[in-house]
Amino acid sequence: SYIGGASRTPEASYQKLEFDDLEEETYQQKFTGGYMAMVQHYFISAFVPASDVEHNYQARKLPGQDIYLLGFTSPLWTVPAGAIASQSVKYYAGPKDQYALQDIAEGLDLTIDYGFLWWLAQPLFYLLTFIQTFVVNWGVAIMLLTLVVKMVLYPLSAASFRSNAKLRKLQPQLLRLKEQHGDDKQKFSQEMMNLYKKEGANPLGGCLPLLLQMPVFIALYWVLLESVEIRQAPFALWITDLSTK
């Protein structure tokens, strides 16, 4: 899980400010709205200034110290003599609750980092929370979500199993071809491809469906890794915290 700074720019709704990068170069950007946050595994602290004003955001490492400063400076604010005025800045410190962060600032919910498969992970998270509202147990919800995913992906799994079964059926014939043309690799490859073509078998037929499923399960893994909802959530018997091994 990522630990470091995060901010938003006009070009990117979520930009990591990694400590290693800040050691080499100070970060400085000026834009309207935005936020400046320090991100941990399950928790975040974030300053969110006025969304209609341009602010100067900066992040740097103090020389010779293991201390990183992340912050922002707002424009000069003048209050005329005798006048009364006010300004406010939002500050949030707490768990990375996706729904709460959405309401605080644009892009702040992206600090729940699902990686490059976020477009798959977010629907899985919404489905997980929807199931949990009925079963009221995160462990059971995870099982049911996995079952739903497996059902949706069943056609791919079935195609993989059928292809593998067909290849296993051809193993005796492949062994015979190897015995006949073992010394001539080119001839053996040619006869093997002819056999696959004749029997309608595809050597990649078992792998491709599995590869197509992998992004879904990687996204599911990131959902379970990043969701603070399962932190200290009990399941059953001795399992009292689903976020631990």
Helix and strand element order: EEHEEEEEEHHHHHHH
Mean pLDDT over the full residue set: 85
The helix tally amounts to: 8
Span of the ends, CA to CA: 15 Å
Q: What proportion strand?
A: 15-25%
Strand order of the largest sheet: 2-1-4-5-8
The biggest sheet amounts to: 5 strands, antiparallel
Helix fraction bin: 40-55%
**Radius of gyration computed on alpha carbons:** 27 Å
Shape: elongated
Derived structural class: alpha+beta
Low-confidence stretches: none
What's the number of extended β-strand segments?
A: 8
Description:
By secondary structure, the chain is α+β, with helices and mostly antiparallel strands. A hairpin with a 7-residue loop joins strand 1 (4-7) and strand 2 (15-17). It has helices at 19-24, 98-104, 118-135, 138-152, 154-169, 171-181, 185-199, 207-226; strands at 4-7, 15-17, 27-32, 36-39, 43-48, 54-61, 68-73, 90-95. It is elongated, with a radius of gyration of 27 Å. The model has no long low-confidence stretch (mean pLDDT 85). The protein has eight helices and eight strands. Strands 2-1-4-5-8 form a five-stranded antiparallel β-sheet. The protein has a three-stranded antiparallel β-sheet with strand order 3-6-7. It is 44% helix and 18% strand.
